[in-house]
Amino acid sequence: MAPRVRIGHNRWFNLLWLIPIGFVVLIVAVAAAKGLRNVNAVEQFITAHPGTVADGAGPTSAALPIWVGVQHFFNLFLLIFIIRSGLQILTDHPRLYWTRHSTPGREWFRIQKPVPSDPLWTAKKDSIDLPGQVGLPGIRHSIGLARWWHLGVDVLWLVNGIVFYVLMFTTGEWRRVVPTSWEVFPNAASTLVQYLSLNWPAETDVGGYNSLQLLAYFITIFIAAPLAFITGLGMSPALSTRFRRISSVLSIQAARSLHFLVLVWFLLFIVVHVALVFMTGLLRNLNHLYANNNGGGWVGFWVFAASMVLVVVGWVAATPFTFRHPRVVQRVGYALIGPAQRLFEHLDAKPGQYSEADISPYFWHNGVYPDSAEYTALQDGGFVDYRLRINGLVAQPVELDLTQLRALPHQEQITQHFCIQGWSGIAKWGGVSLQTLIDLVKPAPEAAWVVFYSLGDGSDGGIYYDAHPIEQMSYHLTMLAYDMNDEPLSFGHGAPLRLRNEIQLGFKQVKWVKGIEFVASMADVGGGYGGYNEDHEFFGYRQTI
Predict the structure, then answer these.
(1) For each successive 10 residues of the chain (545 residues), what is the average pLDDT?
(2) N or C: at which end does the chain have fewer Cβ atoms within 10 angstroms?
(3) Which domains are present in the chain?
(4) Which DSSP symbol is given to 65?
(5) How many of the other CB atoms lie within 10 Å of CB of 463?
(6) Any alpha helices (H) in 8-139, and if so which ranges?
(7) Distance between CA atoms of 460 and 482, rounded to whole angstroms?
(8) Which residues touch 121 (CB under 8 Å, ≥6 apart)?
(9) Residue 170 CB partners (closer than 8 Å, separation 6+)
């Protein structure tokens, strides 16, 4: 399915058309620029603004310091993993929105067909495949591993960027990429005409960039890179919950869309940047970056070639390494992102951020629907025979039917749901607080985890379950919901009971809840990693960032 952009209310533009359209526009632009070069006023403008602003503030050395070349390579090496894993994450929910509601048909970009009329179409069914060596790791439904790659390497990329900023401003190299005069804009316009006319601007002898290059570098270094970081944080459920004033304006979906547009800028910059390096004096440019000189020798080329070998090896090896050692990828990823995640994971979210006017018109279904004889019999009987079993390390194990559950103190909340795939939605939930149930069963002091078991299976077979720290059961917004938007839970959304632990992502909100068990350790439950998706798809049992 080719990527598409929505134009107007419901018209979609196939982005593959940008290839022939872009080619035609380029040809027309070149012809127009050549024609403009024959106009005296334009030639006078180019003579007055040749392309490079000579204000005395630029660098005095043509060659770049060695540290710039080293960081340039390291930045590129990290970006191949960030971009590939980012594309893999995008394809798990291949739709982008500007509102916080992920309503089908209201997305502005999609790499998928329209959502079918099937009322039980799930977000997981909606994901798409990528070629094996494009996405990382390159198979469908691998967002758990993709996130470890993406978030973990992001940390290294940010550290590299901070070091780059410090060195740039302490050595004076910032003068190469920061405009210091308004003259940069007419000179950039002049440079653009010169490039398009194929009569390119002359290269300077002191290593200064022309104004168009300078603006491109400035945007990439000081706007696009920080925006990638900021919009990445904007997609964090923990930060969205903590910084409510910001998330009320910059929704997780708007942040996701802006994050994608930053990716588009990076890809466009890389393509144009590399093309110009090759077409404006390859050896000189590579020596300028990698060999600390501005000559025409081959040293810079061979350093560049060696660095490209490392890039290719890293690109090719990443996918098979991930398949062979997924837990290594998970452990390293958590070691890198874990310290930042732990700053936010114990937030006790408060009610009141959303009202009934904020409820989403569409709330995606997800998960594997239960089809066992046990569930079918309960559903056919209107769940009259349903019993919620709460046991384990508790003083008073209980079995409660729906009538008894509804007789307990009622709790309502309007909250935003965050799915690890990327979609979100706001709903009103009604049910019973987990604190009420804790008071009822009286957990033993050694109980550290609360395990929720589903009447449904996981995607690979076997009972779906998930474990939560016991302290989160006392949070304001942790509850068992039996109503959604003032109606009893539907089959697709988890009838008769589902968990709501609002500081966690959607995969931990167990639907079709069958039983609750209090345990001392999650190591002996299931695969021992804290939940079904943690066992099978390498999710982290803490995914608050």
Answers:
(1) 89 93 94 93 91 63 81 94 96 94 94 92 94 90 94 96 94 89 92 90 67 93 95 84 76 94 96 88 84 81 93 95 96 91 71 87 94 95 96 96 96 93 95 96 96 94 94 92 96 96 91 97 91 92 66
(2) N
(3) 4-342 (no CATH), 356-536 (3.90.420.10)
(4) P
(5) 15
(6) 18-36, 40-48, 66-92
(7) 27
(8) 115, 365
(9) none
